[in-house]
Design brief:
single chain, alpha+beta, Alpha-D-Glucose-1,6-Bisphosphate, Chain A, domain 4, 3 helices, 37% strand, globular
Length: 150
């Protein structure tokens, strides 16, 4: 059911291989605060943004030039009643050819409008995929969150 998932799609001129390389370069489009592996099956990585959001992801499916799927192992939001809203969700990147372009379909499975974080997550994922990942694929430079000064 589409109302229980968030999906956004981008089209680029680059090849599926170039799209796959950018998707797995999570530090290049999401955040420079990523720790751990982001490229291979069973890699695990953590993300954090200040004390607002932390999560731990595991790559559960990696098919070069076709698909990457993450599972949310742990999640914490400091702004929701249920701080673990994403825990157990899956996030997928499907790569295909459409009209001689490369299509990347991003889906956050389980991100439903009933989630307290839905609006901010909708806006954030839209930015990270439509702007930052798109830019990383097409220009070689994304717009990730910068490393925090400590």
């Amino acid at each position: 059911m589409s109302n229980h998932n968030f999906t956004t799609t981008i089209l680029v001129e680059q090849t599926p291989a170039e799209a796959f390389e950018a998707i797995t370069n999570v530090r290049g489009w999401w955040s420079q605060e990523i720790e751990g592996g982001t490229e291979r099956l069973n890699d695990e990585f953590t993300y954090h943004y200040q004390d607002i959001h932390r999560c731990k992801m595991k790559l559960i499916e990696v098919v070069p030039e076709e698909r990457v799927v993450w599972k949310v192992l742990e999640n914490y939001f400091n702004f929701t009643e249920d701080a673990k809203e994403w825990t157990g969700n899956k996030i997928s990147f499907e790569i295909s050819i459409k009209d001689n372009q490369t299509e990347i379909k991003f889906t956050h499975w389980g991100l439903a409008p009933s989630y307290e974080c839905y609006q901010i997550c909708f806006e954030s994922w839209t930015h990270y995929i439509q702007d930052s990942l798109y830019s990383l694929i097409t220009t070689g430079k994304g717009q990730p969150n910068l490393k925090e000064n400590k």
